[in-house]
Structures are given as C-alpha cells and as structure tokens.
C-alpha cells in the first residue's frame, strides 16, 4: 500500500538546475501520521507513484500534500545541481533544496540520507486534495478535512517517467550504525573515483535483479528497466551493446560502457513526433522517423543501433490522461483501429528497454536465511556469511522479502552487517518469501535461494451471537452462528457451544464442540429459559465467548392428573369432588382444570367445571345414578390429557317428575284423569297426589293414593280445569308434573243472576212512566260454551217476552199501582237455561195535576205565594209540591220542594215582575208543570226616620229638625211633621214639604207637646203622582215653661235629660240586639267547625 520506490525526477527535460523543490513544514501534532506539503513552483514538476504502479508527474504551481506514517522526513529526490538540507526552525523541520557544490556532476541525483532512521515508506498524498483521474497507491490521510484550503493543489498531470532504482529509496538511506555509514562513505568514494559522473544509484550497494513490470506501465518515451537503478535509455538488438558485462571487467571497460550508454540515451531522446494521417471514423495512421543522430556527429557510427523497437500509446482523456499501449514493434508506422468517432486522441512513442550491470567482484551467493522464531506479526531470521569469504572482509547483507499479495516482488527489509534480523509489522498467518544478498564495495552477490516462512496466526475473533434457526420446540431447538469476522489468519478448527439454564445461572455446560456452525439443543425442559454462547478455537488459540442468546422453550400441555376423588358422602342431586395438580406441569403453571362427567347408561359426556380451584360441587344430578368423572389440567399451552375415570353413585332421591296426566271428559260435569308411573330413583313409589282446580295457580289436592286414575265429578260445563300429579317415595315427594288443562263440554246457559228493578233515576228512556212501566236489569250468566242468543222474561199470567242480547229492559203497558212477579232465563243454541229467582215489582199510581198559584201578600222585596186548599188534611197527604221561579237567564230554578202550600219569596227587587210555576209530585212521580204565573213587587216606602230633635227658641217658639233621606231611584222625598198637644189622642199635621226642619210657634206655657216625623216618596207614575208614606219616627216630648234664670236652667236640664234618656233607650236596645247577633254567629261558627266537620 505504500510507495517503497519513489522515482527520481527527470533532469534534462523538465527541471533545470536552477529550480528548487521545497516542502512546507510538517504539520505539528503528536500522532504517528503527519502531513507534509511539497510545494511545486511554476514550471516545475514533482513525481509520485500511483497505486497501479505507474508514476504521476505533477506540474507547478501546486502544493502536494503527503502523509508520513511515522512522522519522519521522507527521502526527497531533487533536480540535478541541487542538494536538500533539513533545517529546524522553532521546532518545525523543513526540507530546503539548495544548489550543490561546483564539483557536482550533471546527470546524477542527490539523495538525502538519514542514517539514524529506519527505512521509510513512501509518503501518502491526500486524496481529497488531488483530482479524481490520477489514482495513487497512498491510503487516505486521517484528518485531511482539517487542512486549510490554501493547501489544495492546483495541478495537472504531465509526463510520467520510468521506474527508478529501488535501492535508491532503501539501502542508501537506511544505515543504522557507524559501521554501515563508514562502509557507505568508502563505497561512494571508490565509485566517484572510478565513474566520475555516474548516476547517484552507484553510490549504494547494487540491488538484486527484479522482475520487469509490464510494458503497459511505460509513459512518455521512457521505459522501465530491468535493473531499475537509473533511467532506462533503451535497448537494441545490436551486438555492440550486448546484455552487459560481468563483475570481473576492468574499470576502463566500465568507463567505456558509461560513455556508450550516454551516447545511446542522447540518441533515443531525439525521436521525432508521430505524424497522423488518413484519419477515418474509427481508424488513423501514425508514422514516425527513427531517432536522429545529428547530435552525435563525432560518435562512432558503428555504435548506432540498426533496429529499434517502438511502443505507441494513445489516450482519449487528454494529454494528461491515462495512456494505453496500442503497438509494440520495429515498424515506424501503425494503423490504430477501434477508435471512437469524433474523439480527440493523444499518442506517444516509447523506446525499448536496456539492461545495465555493475562491475567488480561481488561476494558469492549466501545460504538461505533460517527461521529462528515466528510470531503473529514478526519473523526472526538468521543467515551466515557466504562460503569462501574472508573473515575480515566487510560484507553487508540485504534481506529481501516478497509478499505475494502485494504484487511488487521482493523488497529489501534489512540492510546491514548483522546476521540476524526480525521482520516486524507483518500480517498474521501470511506466507512470505525471503532471500539474502551479500554485497561489499565491489558489488553484490546473487540472491540466495528463496525460502518461505509463515507468520503465526492470531487467536480468532468473537463469533457472532448465536441465533435460533427455525421453530423453537418444547424440548429442542436449533441454533446457528456466523464465523468471526476475524479468523486470526487461520481456519477455525472447532466451535464450542456452552449453555446455562436459567436467567441468572453462572454454570455453563458445554453442549457441542465441532466444526459445524449449527447445533440442535435437545433434551430440554419445556417452559425453561436457556442462555447460550459460542466461542471458537483456531490455530492461534481460543476466542472470547460471544454474547449470550436467551431462548425460552415453549411450554407444553400438562401431563395427566390423578382421577378426582369424592369428598364427603354423595347426595341425591350433587356430589363434591377434589383433586390435585398433575405431576408434570409442562413448563408452565397450571392455570385451569377441566372436569368432565358422563353417565354410564347414555355415555353422554359434558364438562361440568372449568376453573383454577382444586375442588368443585357438581349439581343437577339424578338420584341413584352412576356417574363417571375424569379430569384434565391446562396451562398457557392448552389442556393436557384426561385422567382415568372415577365412578361415583348418587344417593337415592324422590321420584322423577311424572309425565303429564291424561284427562277424558265423560260429560259436562264429569272427567276421568289417568297418569303413569315415573322413575323411582332408587326407592319404590308409595302414593300419588293429584291436584285439581279451575285456576292454574290455585289447584287443590283432589286425590291421594297408590292408584293411577281418578274420576272428577260436579264440574261446570264449558269450563277449563287444570290438574297435575306428583309421585312420593320414602326419600320424599318428587316434582309435580306439567299442568294439564281440559275443558268440559258446552251446555245450556247458567242461571241468570242479579235480577232487579231499576229506579226512575236509573232509567234514561224519555218514554218511561213509573205508573205504566217497570224497568229491570240483570247480569250475563255463563253461556256454558255456547253463545247466549237472548233472554225470556216472565212477569205473570201474560205470555213471556223474549228479548235480545241485552242486560236491561223496560216492560210497558202495565196497570198503574199494580204488583207484578218477574223472572228471567237465558237462551243459547242448546236451549233455555233455568229461570232466575222471582222478584216483585209494583207500578206507581198516576201523578197529580198542578195546583193554582196565588199571591197572598206582597211587599217591595217579598212575595208570599199560596196554592192548594191549605187544610190540615192536605198536610198529611203524600203529595209534594215543587215551586220554580225564572232567573235572569230565562231558566226556571227550584225555590221550594215540600208538602207546604205557602212560600214567601224574599230578596226581591221593588217594582219588578217575576214568573213562577208549580207541579205536584207523589209516588207515581212528578206531575206536569202548571202555567206560568207573573207577580210584580210594589215600590218600597221610605225608611223610618229617627226621632226628631227639638231646640227651644223662646217661651212660645221651638225648632224641630229631623233626618234627611236621599231620593229613592229618582223619586223625590218630602217630609211630614205631626204634633200632639196636651192630652189629645191624635197627631195633627203641622208641616209637609221637602225641608228637614220646622219652627213651631204658639207654644203655651206648661203644656206637653209630642212631635213625630215621616218621609213621603213621591212616585212619578205614567198615570199620575203617587205618594208612598213611610213609617213615623218615635214621638219626642217637649214641655214649654217660662224662662227664669235659675229655674229655667233646671227645667231646661230636665227637658234635655228626658230627651237624652229617650234617645239613649233606643241606642241601648240596638246595642243589645247587635251583641246578640254577634254571639249567635260565633256559636254557629263553633258548631260548624268543631261538630259538623
């Protein structure tokens, strides 16, 4: 992966002697890998080697980033005339290229030698900073993204040069100690003295011959030489050059050979540019001329090759693109085929290869190196001096190693005078080829025989976590695993599978060991957890165990249970069973039990219990029966098999339910009941009980005995009867049979019930007369299964009356005040039923006529009416009278109903006409109403005035005043004042008029005067005025006497006192009357509230 042979820059055609090649400072850091920027100036070029073995030339201006894997300064190849120097400034090392001393010979290449450092691998350019087309063999640089953008190279690919000497990058820069440094200096001095201007490749011990790369990797006119120690200038078929000299030639011959080589290099560098002609869509003709010898006019013509071999390469990706070889041969023209139409191509020609050989006496071929010890990444080798070598001769050794996987052939791994070396940084379990080359100042020997040694393998990596393959069974499953990603460099010999039971178990048991990568784990327990892990064993040792795999085996159904056992004594209808869990639970807790029952006789089975309890009570059994029970358990996987059967017999019990009895009606009043013997349930039946009734829920025991039939009598026709039967034994009474209903045959209707006469109020017929009619009603009797069509009414000697389907009837055309015997019977299609009971009904006499109505007395608010004779005999009569009066709405309302012949109508209005009518009533009913009578109330007289007041004016004059009344309904009111003088027996009128006072004169001394007053209503009648005189007031006594001062005062006092007393008596009477009325009202209220309510 690393460029072990960085090429030298061409010294003639690219970089002049004045072009420096500088490197930027190494990027500071503590890591093993550091980045170096190689600065390429404008017009300069820098050559690197790509991954495919070809060399890339980068032209300036550019900065080429390169990675140093170990932080050391790489070997830098500089143009002719320049030498590199390493300087350190502030801890940063720089490589500076400066002009060489004047004695420097053109054509050679200076090499930086760093004896203290081991052989350095090639530097790695950053892929991120180089365009994609050129591919390099360097690995990516870690952290390249952190580099500043100013370091991104701006370059283009240019000419690519042939491969250079491989030893120039190794042996000459890798001296480890002072002895090797002295040997190098001695060899360099000798070579300078002998060759002068030879190339820098001669300053180091020669390398072993290497395999020549393919011609397809040659570019731009310079081919790769087999020696690879300098620039290949070409090879010819001329015999003047030959294939090389042996190491025993003299120094003069070597010098002559170098002169010839330079002349040939100058000749081949003058090859002309190819000429393109005859360009077609897919072909083109290329022609060129042989190399010109104009530059070598003074040279020997015999040294010019007679035949040249040419190589032509073309590129369709530009001048700096990748070239491919299209022709190798001796002709100077070629027709290029298989081209693309309308495509630009670049063509270049190359010369053939030339082989160079060093001269001098080299050591003999040493023996092959021997393996002392081997490790995973190292091999310790030992070799001996070549045979025949003097002990004091300084011989150095080059240990070369070939990694077949790299494809680069043998590469030097050690250069020194030690006879042992440990090769490190190797790949594990990899075959490497080794050979030893001995060299001294005269040259190097042929390589020893190649030996192969293999590094030890490392212990393998961790296999993958095992995985379950397929379905996980209850007692087995298959696991598989992948081999480790890292096998340690050797085949895996064996895999070991360990298993631990449980989730936290620390005990691991080996269950498999072998080369297969799958295993079937069997003989497991259902429902258990297992952890499995795998490790492998290879030649390098045992790997670490993989991550554990947790596998849960599925649970299976439980095993069979023990048969259930009887708990306690069996009962007639139920038994209690108990059981235990099965011995094998199938890897999962028991969650449910299923109990199945079946009878021996029928072999019908059913599940009677399912649950988690270990006992249950089985009910709804039959007494005296044998039952079989079996049990099964269930877990999350399902139910297991059934247990063995368990036989249990129930205790005897009451008989089974009888079958429904059979009923046969012999007549409408008789029926025969039959039944069968039921199952006795282990005990003989002792008796049967028959229940019979007309209502299903109210049946009574009608028979009790051992018989199987019973006759029922006294039944009603067309009636539904219900019956059921029950069997009894010593264990008890069995259940009743189903209820059976039967109906007796139809017959004539039953007796009519509830026959009665209707009163007048219950009869709604307008033509009904209680004197000539009788109304009766009855209830519908039972029709006994046949619809009632009508009724027959018998009411005496007359023919019976047949009526329809009614329940009331009015018998008319009868005699008044006559008694009748009435009975009735119902009729249907089967005939007439029996008569009902007889009732006596009597017609009423005819009602009386209405009497004459008269007004016996009247007033303004009352009317006293009179009718009939009014004798005492009449009061004892049964006739009642009904007096009615018309109201404001024109309807007659009842005023009085009774036997009296007079009635006083009160609370009437004065001068108003009222209409009255009357009717007489007796047992026969109400008679007709009389004609309407009209009576009018008179106008009312004024009310009585209060006693007048008398005021004395003088001895002969007094003034009388009285109460004032308002006009009555528009009629004016006047007053009349009367006086009675002395002992006269009559009052005389002294005033009549509208005034309410009168002054009376002409009084006599010591004479008594009595005054009274009344009001008079002057009625305005159409026929004339009419005065209605009201009652007079109470008289007032007045005695006239002479007026004397003292006496007069006393008399006046006496008179006033009399007047006051007269007035106070009236007031007192009124108060007493009012108190009595109030007391009466209170008594009435108390009686009403406390007594009546």
Structure description:
The structure is a single chain. The protein is mainly beta. It contains four helices and 70 strands. Strands 17, 18, 20, 21 and 22 form a five-stranded antiparallel β-sheet that branches. Strands 25, 26, 28, 29 and 30 form a five-stranded antiparallel β-sheet that branches. The longest helix has 48 residues. The N terminus is likely disordered.
In brief, what are we looking at here?
With 1093 residues, this protein is mainly beta. It is built from 4 helices and 70 strands.
In angstroms, what separates the terminal alpha carbons?
A: 133 Å
**Total helical elements:** 4
Please compute the radius of gyration using only Cα atoms: 80 Å
Biggest pleated sheet:
5 strands, antiparallel
Shape type:
elongated
Helix coverage percent: under 10%
Q: In what range is the share of β-strand residues? A: 35-45%
Average pLDDT reading: 75
Protein name: Fibronectin type-III domain-containing protein 3A
Domain Fibronectin type-III: 365-458, 462-556, 560-653, 657-747, 759-846, 847-940, 941-1046
Transmembrane segments: 1069-1092
Pfam families: fn3
Which descriptors would you attach to this protein?
1093 residues, 5-stranded antiparallel β-sheet, single chain, 35% strand, 8% helix, elongated, 4 helices, mainly beta
How is this fold's topology laid out?
Elements: E1 22-23, E2 34-40, E3 45-49, E4 55-59, E5 62-68, E6 82-89, E7 92-99, E8 124-125, H1 178-195, H2 251-268, E9 275-277, E10 284-287, E11 310-315, E12 324-329, E13 333-336, E14 346-350, E15 370-374, E16 379-382, E17 396-403, E18 410-416, E19 420-423, E20 431-440, E21 443-444, E22 451-454, E23 467-469, E24 477-480, E25 492-501, E26 509-514, E27 518-521, E28 529-538, E29 541-542, E30 549-552, E31 565-566, E32 575-578, E33 592-599, E34 605-611, E35 615-618, E36 626-635, E37 638-639, E38 646-649, E39 662-667, E40 670-674, E41 685-693, E42 700-705, E43 709-713, E44 720-729, E45 732-733, E46 740-743, E47 753-757, E48 774-779, E49 788-794, E50 801-803, E51 808-811, E52 819-828, E53 831-832, E54 839-842, E55 853-858, E56 863-867, H3 872-876, E57 880-886, E58 892-898, E59 902-905, E60 913-922, E61 925-926, E62 933-936, E63 949-952, E64 957-961, E65 973-981, E66 988-993, E67 997-1001, E68 1007-1021, E69 1024-1029, E70 1036-1040, H4 1045-1092
GO cellular component, one term: Golgi membrane
Main location: Golgi
Membrane topology: Single-pass membrane protein
């Amino acid at each position: 992966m690393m460029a072990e042979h960085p090429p030298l820059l061409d010294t003639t055609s690219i970089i002049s002697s004045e072009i420096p090649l500088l490197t930027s400072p190494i990027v500071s850091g503590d890591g093993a890998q550091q980045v170096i920027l190689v600065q390429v100036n404008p017009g300069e070029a820098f050559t690197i080697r790509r991954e495919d073995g070809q060399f890339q030339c980068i032209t300036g201006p550019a900065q080429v980033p390169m990675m140093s894997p170990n932080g050391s300064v790489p070997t830098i190849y500089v143009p002719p005339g320049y030498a590199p120097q390493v300087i350190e400034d502030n801890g940063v090392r720089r490589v500076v290229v400066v002009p060489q001393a004047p004695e420097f010979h053109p054509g050679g290449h200076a090499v930086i030698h760093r004896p203290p450092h081991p052989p350095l691998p090639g530097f790695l350019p950053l892929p991120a900073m180089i365009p994609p087309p050129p591919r390099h063999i360097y690995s990516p640089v870690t952290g390249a993204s952190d580099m500043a953008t100013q370091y991104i190279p701006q370059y283009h690919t240019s000419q690519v040069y042939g491969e250079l000497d491989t030893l120039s990058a190794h042996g000459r820069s890798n001296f480890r100690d002072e002895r090797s440094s002295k040997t190098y200096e001695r060899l360099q001095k000798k070579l300078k003295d002998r060759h002068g201007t030879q190339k820098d490749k001669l300053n180091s011990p020669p390398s072993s011959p290497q395999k020549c790369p393919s011609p397809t990797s040659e570019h731009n006119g310079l081919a790769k030489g087999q020696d690879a120690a300098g620039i290949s200038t070409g090879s010819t078929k001329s015999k003047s050059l030959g294939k090389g000299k042996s190491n025993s030639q003299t120094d003069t011959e070597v010098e002559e050979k170098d002169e010839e080589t330079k002349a040939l290099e100058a000749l081949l560098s003058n090859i002309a540019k190819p000429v393109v002609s005859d360009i077609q869509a897919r072909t083109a003709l290329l022609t060129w001329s042989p190399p010109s010898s104009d530059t070598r006019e003074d040279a020997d013509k015999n040294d010019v090759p007679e035949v040249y071999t040419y190589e032509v390469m073309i590129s369709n990706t530009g001048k700096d693109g990748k070239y491919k070889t299209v022709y190798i041969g001796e002709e100077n023209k070629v027709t290029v085929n298989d081209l693309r139409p309308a495509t630009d191509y670049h063509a270049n020609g190359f010369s053939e290869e030339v082989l160079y050989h060093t001269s001098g006496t080299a050591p003999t071929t040493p023996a092959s190196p021997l393996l002392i010890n081997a490790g995973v990444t190292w091999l310790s080798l030992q070799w001996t001096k070549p045979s025949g070598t003097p002990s004091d001769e300084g011989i150095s050794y080059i240990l070369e190693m070939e990694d077949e996987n790299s494809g680069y052939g043998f590469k030097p791994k050690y250069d020194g005078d030690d006879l042992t070396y440990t090769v490190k940084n190797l790949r594990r379990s990899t075959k490497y080829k080794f050979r030893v080359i001995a060299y001294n100042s005269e040259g190097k020997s042929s390589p020893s025989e190649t030996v192969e040694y293999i590094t030890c393998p490392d212990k393998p990596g961790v296999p993958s976590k095992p995985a379950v393959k397929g379905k996980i069974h209850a007692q087995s499953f298959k696991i598989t695993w992948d081999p480790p990603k890292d096998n340690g460099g050797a085949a895996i010999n064996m895999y070991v599978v360990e298993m631990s039971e449980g989730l936290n178990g620390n005990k691991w048991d080996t269950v498999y060991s072998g080369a297969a990568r799958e295993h079937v784990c069997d003989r497991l327990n259902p429902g258990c957890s297992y952890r499995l892990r795998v490790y492998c064993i290879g030649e390098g040792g045992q790997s670490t165990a993989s991550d554990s795999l947790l596998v849960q085996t599925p649970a299976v159904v439980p095993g069979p249970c023990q048969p259930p056992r009887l708990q306690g004594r069996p009962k007639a209808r139920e038994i209690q069973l108990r059981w235990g869990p099965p011995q094998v639970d199938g890897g999962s807790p028991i969650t449910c039990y299923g109990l199945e029952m079946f009878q021996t006789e029928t072999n019908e089975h059913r599940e009677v219990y399912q649950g988690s309890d270990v006992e249950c009570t089985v009910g709804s059994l039959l007494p005296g029966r044998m039952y079989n029970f079996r049990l099964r358990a269930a877990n999350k996987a399902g139910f297991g098999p059934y247990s063995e059967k368990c036989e249990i017999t129930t205790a005897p019990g009451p008989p089974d339910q009888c079958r429904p009895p059979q009923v046969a009606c012999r007549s409408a009043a008789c029926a025969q009941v039959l039944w069968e013997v039921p199952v006795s349930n282990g005990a003989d039946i002792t008796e049967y009980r028959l229940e019979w009734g007309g209502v299903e829920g109210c049946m009574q025991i009608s028979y009790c005995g051992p018989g199987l039939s019973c006759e029922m009598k006294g039944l009603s026709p067309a009636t539904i009867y219900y019956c059921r039967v029950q069997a009894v034994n010593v264990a008890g009474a069995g259940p009743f049979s189903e209820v059976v209903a039967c109906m007796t045959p139809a017959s004539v209707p039953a007796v009519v019930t509830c026959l009665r006469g209707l009163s007048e109020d219950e009869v709604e017929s307008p033509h009904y007369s209680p004197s000539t009619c009788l109304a009766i009603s009855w209830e519908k009797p039972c029709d006994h299964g046949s619809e009632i069509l009508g009724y027959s009414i018998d009411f005496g000697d007359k023919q019976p009356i047949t009526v329809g389907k009614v329940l009331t009837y009015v018998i008319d055309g009868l005699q008044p005040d006559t008694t009748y015997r009435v009975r009735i019977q119902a009729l249907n299609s089967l005939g007439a039923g029996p008569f009902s009971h007889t009732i006596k009904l009597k017609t009423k006499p005819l009602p009386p006529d209405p009497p004459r109505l008269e007004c016996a007395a009247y007033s303004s608010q009352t009317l006293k009416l009179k009718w009939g004779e009014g004798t005492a005999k009449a009061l004892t009569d049964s006739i009642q009278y009904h007096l009615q009066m018309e109201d404001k709405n024109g309807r007659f309302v009842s005023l009085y109903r009774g036997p009296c012949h007079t009635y006083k109508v009160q609370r009437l209005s004065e001068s108003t006409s009222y209409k009255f009518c009357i009717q007489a009533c007796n047992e026969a009913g109400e008679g007709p109403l009389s004609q309407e009578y009209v009576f009018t109330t008179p106008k009312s007289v004024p009310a009585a005035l209060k006693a007048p007041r008398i005021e004395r004016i003088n001895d002969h004059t007094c003034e009388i005043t009285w109460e004032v009344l308002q006009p009555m309904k528009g009629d004016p009111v006047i007053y009349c004042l009367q006086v009675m003088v002395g002992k006269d027996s009559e009052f005389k009128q002294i005033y009549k008029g509208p005034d309410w006072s009168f002054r009376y004169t002409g009084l006599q001394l010591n004479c008594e005067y009595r005054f009274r007053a009344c009001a008079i209503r002057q009625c305005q009648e159409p026929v004339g005025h009419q005065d209605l005189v009201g009652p007079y007031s109470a008289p007032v006594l007045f005695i006239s006497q002479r007026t004397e001062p003292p006496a007069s005062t006393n008399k006046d006092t006496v008179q006033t006192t009399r007047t006051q007393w007269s007035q106070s008596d009236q007031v007192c009477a009124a108060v007493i009357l009012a108190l009595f009325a109030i007391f009466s009202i209170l008594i009435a209220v108390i009686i009403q509230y406390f007594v009546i309510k």
